[in-house]
Amino acid sequence: MKEYLSLSAEVQRAKEQGKPVVALESTIISHGMPYPQNVQTAREVEQIIRDYGAVPATIAILDGKIKIGLDDQELEDFGNSEGVAKASRRDLPYLLATKQKGATTVAATMICAELAEVNIFVTGGIGGVHRGAETSMDISADLEELAKTNVAVVCAGAKSILDLGLTMEYLETKGVPVVGYQTDVLPAFFTRTSEFPVNFRLDDAETVAGTLRAKWDLKLQGGAVIANPIPEEYAMNEADISAVIDTALNEAEANNISGKEVTPFLLAKVTELTDGKSLEANIALVKHNAKIGAQIAVNM
Prior knowledge:
Distance between the termini: 25 Å
Helix content: 40-55%
CATH class: Alpha Beta
Largest sheet: 11 strands, mixed
Oligomer: single chain
Order of helices and strands: EHEHHEEHEHEHEHHEHEEHEHHH
Structural class: alpha/beta
Number of domains: 1
CATH topology: Indigoidine synthase fold
CATH superfamily: Indigoidine synthase domain
């Protein structure tokens, strides 16, 4: 296993010194935003994690290795690359063997983080059960990964393009705790609220860390969702964003877009239909998650 892992100098140092490390995914860089905004945002998010006392580890597949932490040049090159594969659990062996570039999804980032003994991971939002999944069976691999991989995911809930009720049901079946960070209900990515209550509300990073420690001490396999709402000033109006998402979903259906192409298409369409406001919101919520994730990692 070790032959596939490559730790950046900063992460290696943090490990040797016993400093907390926070994992970051790379799909947001290659499939979430245009260049150079993607690289700039990635750097800013990494800096927030440092400012709060932890060490960032952006994870990506490069040159037949799982990179745990990218240096400045690698980040620049990665953000500017065309045709980077979207890497989930099933794709990792193929991409490593063929030495292709891969941007890790939530599921793949969790796997790689656990291999590197990093148990806190910050992202935008998790994948989930797609609308219409009762006929399409379109369920994100993120949920299955949360059921079996010991990494906590700090996120702004699940993307509101999903069926949030079925997503919560799936997580309950798999025994994955959904913790509301200073909230009683599941945030829906662009908005702070939804109609679905979280399992537990916790109001400080110390208690979250204690809960995670107890879970893993008890050998209760799997991760946890730490749902942290988007900051108030960046939250979008619920009715407006719902209308936009419905339009985007209809267009995806009309164009026969399915599988892993759905989410990038919908997010790009939502950005277009909101005149870029959703992209601003996306950046703001990831930065907010980085702050909370770093605080939890420090308390671990």
